[in-house]
Amino acid sequence: MPQPESMPASRPNAPSPESPPARKKSLAREYGEALIIAVILALIIRALVVQAFSIPSGSMLPTLQIGDYLLVNKFIYGIRNPFTNRVLIPISRPKRGDVVVFIFPQDPSKDYIKRVVGLPGDRVQISHKKLLINGQPFDTPQAVYSDPEVLPPPARPGEPSRDHFGPVVVPPDSYFVLGDNRDHSYDSRFWGFVHLDGLRGKAFIIYFSWNGDHSLPVYLAFFKGLRHFVTTLSWDTEAFEVRWARIGSLIR
Asked: From the CB of residue 236, how many other CB atoms can be counted at a distance below 10 Å?
């Protein structure tokens, strides 16, 4: 009687077919992916969390000086649509005394920085340079008046005036802002209110500051000082000088 054929016995511990080795990314690809991720994160942080700004004018002296570089908290007043700047998820509202960066109402391509003095519903008036909020004098410790002359009230109602204004009531979701350098600031006295959706955020710290030839970009002013050092072994502080004492200062 024929015997059934036996199945071939498998060899114990037989090596399995080797899988093809994983292909390693090229160094250029790894750096490229890391760079793309870093750029995306930077754009998200800039759009939603914090953004850097520089000070080009003296309207906020002495609080902020020309050549100050500061960081603005964009998250504090709410999460915004990065394309329209409209508040999507409100978090808090500006308080009286906050130093805020906002889209200039008369030219959306520009950003301004001023101090909030009037909140929604406040009755704001300026008489002989004195600020009154709801009929009561309101003193801002940071405000300075460098011009002793008091300009006369406007000839017709509604005309702008530096030293006389209002009274006006701040509309809902809007704010009345002034520069700390009151006699040399182009602010709500001249162009009106800042709407909540125009706010960029609250300025909170100075991360860099320099003094020198502000008619030049910072890097050209630096190289001008460096060139003087190379030729004379002395730094040209009139061209570029770091204000070390201002770096890290909180903005109040």
From this structure: 18
